[in-house]
Amino acid sequence: MVKLLYNALRTPDGTVLNSRSRHDYNTYEDTNGKTYMIDGGLDYVRCSAHGDEEHLCVWSDDSHDVIREHVEWGTYGKDGDQALKYVKIKDMTTDHLEACVRTQKASIMFDVFVTELDYRAS
Description:
This protein is an alpha+beta fold. The chain has two domains: 4-59, no CATH class; 64-121, no CATH class. 24% of the residues lie in helices and 26% in strands. The protein has helices at 64-70, 94-103, 110-121; strands spanning 4-6, 8-10, 16-18, 26-29, 35-39, 46-47, 54-55, 58-59, 72-75, 85-88. The chain has a three-stranded antiparallel sheet, with no helix packed on it. A three-stranded antiparallel sheet has the order 4-5-6, with no helix packed on it. Strands 1-8 form a two-stranded antiparallel ribbon. A hairpin with a 5-residue loop joins strand 2 and strand 3.
């Protein structure tokens, strides 16, 4: 079954809107005066459709090169005491990826972590 891994769009002025969780509804008024929106996180894609936006969604059947460039993982740091930040898969440390493989077996991202480790090993 193909899974949504990154839910985003780019407006004509280059602004990227993304939705990280089910009801993470984001809007933006572009310099062209149109309002763009995205919603659904990794559960569904709901977005504006003016026809001039670029859809940036990444799916589990996309190439790993595409996945690692766009897909992000939220982290509170090694000890869980830092502010939440999102890190692209390609920018995660190997130690972090290995920790995610050990602790995130039920995550939609589990296969991405494993594939990234294999990618780095080859």
